[in-house]
Design a protein that fits this description.
Largest sheet: 6 strands, mixed
Strand order of the largest sheet: 1-2-3-4-5-6
Distance between the termini: 33 Å
Mean pLDDT: 88
Strand content: 25-35%
Number of strands: 6
């Protein structure tokens, strides 16, 4: 039986991925008692931001329905964070999910919506490897 991927594990894996890929300036991670997006970070070279909502796995026996619920809940949270902001900055949004929930997101989020919203899916596996899916990737999977 595989170990449950916690939200903390997902956040750390994504944080490390962001730092390795040019996203580290003004890094902020929400504390458990705070409201707002889980991860906010600025690109090291340009005025772009990533706002990422993260979720972990459930240890419940009804894992399939829990993964679906977790995905839908995280999508709702990130959608409510999207706002029209200063045009000088590029805002990208992301869902940071365990691989099992990310597979659902990749299948269910319409690629056209992901394109319009600058929405990405970050998939974290049990070893902590992160894969980022863009709207182009979603389109390939949804054909």
């Amino acid at each position: 039986m595989k170990k449950v991927i916690t939200e903390k594990f997902v956040r750390r894996a994504i944080r490390d991925w962001l730092f390795r890929n040019g996203w580290g300036r003004n890094y902020k991670e929400k504390e458990s008692h705070e409201q707002g997006v889980d991860i906010q970070v600025q690109n090291n070279k340009w005025s772009g931001y990533f706002l990422i909502e993260t979720k972990g796995e459930s240890s419940a026996k009804s894992a399939k329905s829990q993964r679906e619920t977790s995905f839908v809940f995280s999508l709702g949270q990130i959608i409510t964070r999207i706002k029209v902001v200063d045009a000088r900055y590029a805002y990208n949004y992301g869902l940071g999910l365990p691989e099992s929930s990310a597979k659902i997101a990749i299948r269910r989020i319409p690629w056209q919506a992901a394109r319009k919203l600058c929405l990405y899916v970050f998939s974290v596996n049990h070893s902590g490897k992160v894969k980022k899916y863009s709207w182009q990737d979603l389109r390939k999977f949804q054909k």
